[in-house]
Specification:
217 residues, alpha+beta, Alpha-Beta Plaits, 2 domains, 3 helices, 12 strands, rod-shaped
C-alpha cells in the first residue's frame, strides 16, 4: 500500500484515534471549545478525503535452477567456445554449488548469459556471490552474478476515501507558545472522555507554513 500525502495547512491539526467511534463522534459534534493555555479556542472538527492511493501485492519468485551472468569478458574466440567455457566454469564451481549445466544462453553483444542447471537448488551458493571468478586462457575475470527472478503484480487496486479514525481540526488561533506545547494541550483536551475524546495514536499540529502528512491504509 502506497503512502498517501495530505497537505496540512497553518493552524490546523490532525488527530488519529485508536477507536474510530471516537473520531466519528467528534465529527458529528462539529464545534469544540478548547482551553489552550487559558485562551479559549473555538475549533471545528472536519472529516477529510484522502487523495488517490494504490494497493497491490508484489510476488517475486527466485529460480533455483537459473542464474543471470553479466560482464562476460570480450575475447577473440567463437561464441560456441565461450558457451563451453562458461558451462565448464560453473560446472566446476569452487563455491560449493553448481553442478551439471542444462543450458547456456549467451549473448555476445550484451556480454550476458543465463546459466540453467539440471539440479534444483544449484543456484543457492551463487546468489550470495555478487562477483564470481571466471578462468579462461590463463586469466581470471570477475563475472557479475544475480539470481533469475520472476516478478508479477496481483490484486492491483486504486482507492480513495475518507479517513475513519483521523479528524482535521480547523480554527486554532495563533499562540505565543511553541508548536509542541500547543500540540500537547490539544492532545490532552481530546484524550479526555469528558470532552467526548479518547486514546490518541498520532497527532500533528502546524503553527506556521504547511507540511505534508503521509497516511497508510
Amino acid at each position: 500500500t502506497t503512502k498517501i500525502p495530505f497537505r496540512l495547512n497553518q493552524n490546523q491539526a490532525l488527530l488519529t484515534f485508536e477507536d474510530e467511534e471516537v473520531a466519528q463522534r467528534l465529527i458529528k459534534m462539529g464545534k469544540h471549545t478548547v482551553n489552550l493555555d487559558n485562551k479559549i479556542a473555538h475549533v471545528s472538527v472536519k472529516p477529510f478525503t484522502l487523495e488517490m492511493g494504490i494497493k497491490f501485492e508484489l510476488h517475486v519468485t527466485i529460480s533455483g535452477k537459473k542464474i543471470n551472468v553479466s560482464e562476460v569478458p570480450e575475447l577473440p574466440i567463437p561464441e560456441e567456445w565461450m558457451r563451453d567455457k562458461l558451462e565448464l566454469n560453473f560446472y566446476k564451481s569452487d563455491q560449493g554449488g553448481g553442478g551439471e549445466v542444462e543450458n547456456v544462453n549467451y549473448d555476445k553483444q550484451s556480454r550476458t548469459a543465463v546459466i540453467t542447471f539440471l539440479r534444483p537448488g544449484a543456484t543457492n551458493s551463487f546468489v550470495r556471490c555478487a562477483k564470481y571468478p571466471f578462468f579462461v586462457n590463463g586469466r581470471c575475470y570477475r563475472l557479475s552474478v544475480s539470481p533469475d527472478t520472476n516478478i508479477h503484480l496481483e490484486k492491483f487496486q486504486l482507492y480513495c476515501g475518507i479517513s475513519k479514525k483521523t479528524i482535521l481540526l480547523k480554527g486554532i488561533q495563533d499562540m505565543e507558545d511553541d508548536e509542541e506545547s500547543v500540540q500537547d494541550m490539544i492532545e490532552i483536551h481530546f484524550q479526555k472522555p469528558s470532552n467526548s475524546g479518547g486514546e490518541i495514536e498520532t497527532i500533528k499540529y502546524v503553527s506556521k507554513g504547511v507540511t505534508w502528512v503521509c497516511f497508510e491504509e
